[in-house]
């Protein structure tokens, strides 16, 4: 059974790119438009990993990470924050509140899949 990835980004174009890459990589993708929508989706779906943007309306990526870490079912789920924000202070804050990994956008699809495989402990055969 395919693992489920929650893709959280206020940009429909970014979500579409990520969902296409994830589907191609054998994952099931669930989309959310912001942090509040993501929290609702976490109640509706069993998710193995979250990918979140940093800057979003309603609840940003930092707030989402905090909320996910407080959720009993997801407090240990891998969270990959992908953002165009290159601020070392924001990255430090995100990792401090519980993001598992942090990467810059844009990210090539193959690099995204490699990061996800690594975070889920699924390494492709050599």
Give a verbal description of the structure:
The structure is a single chain. The protein is of the alpha/beta class and 126 residues long. It has one domain: Response regulator (Rossmann fold, 3-Layer(aba) Sandwich). Helix content is 43%, strand content 18%. It has a 5-stranded parallel β-sheet with strand order 2-1-3-4-5, sandwiched between helices. Helix 1 crosses helix 5. The chain is globular, with a radius of gyration of 13 Å. The chain starts with a strand and ends in a 7-residue tail after the last helix.
Q: SSE string, helix = H, strand = E?
A: EHEHEHEHEH
CATH superfamily: Response regulator
Structural class by SSE content: alpha/beta
Annotation field: number of helices: 5
Query: In angstroms, what is the radius of gyration?
Result: 13 Å
Query: Strand portion, in percent?
Result: 15-25%
The helix content is 40-55%
Q: What is the distance, rounded to the nearest whole angstrom, between the alpha carbons of the first and last residues?
A: 22 Å
List the strand order in the largest sheet.
Answer: 2-1-3-4-5
Looking at the structure, the CATH topology is: Rossmann fold
CATH class: Alpha Beta
Mean pLDDT: 94
């Amino acid at each position: 059974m395919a693992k489920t990835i929650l893709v959280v980004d206020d940009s429909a174009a970014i979500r579409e790119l990520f969902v296409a890459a994830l589907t191609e990589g054998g994952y099931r993708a669930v989309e959310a438009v912001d942090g509040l929508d993501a929290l609702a989706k976490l109640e509706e779906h069993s998710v193995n990993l979250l990918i979140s943007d940093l800057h979003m309306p309603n609840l940003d990526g930092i707030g989402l990470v905090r909320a996910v870490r407080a959720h009993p079912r997801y407090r240990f789920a891998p969270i990959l924050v992908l953002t165009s924000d290159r601020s070392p202070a924001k990255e430090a804050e995100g990792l401090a509140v519980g993001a598992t990994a942090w990467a810059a956008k844009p990210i090539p699809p193959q690099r995204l899949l490699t990061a996800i495989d690594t975070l889920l402990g699924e390494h492709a055969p050599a």
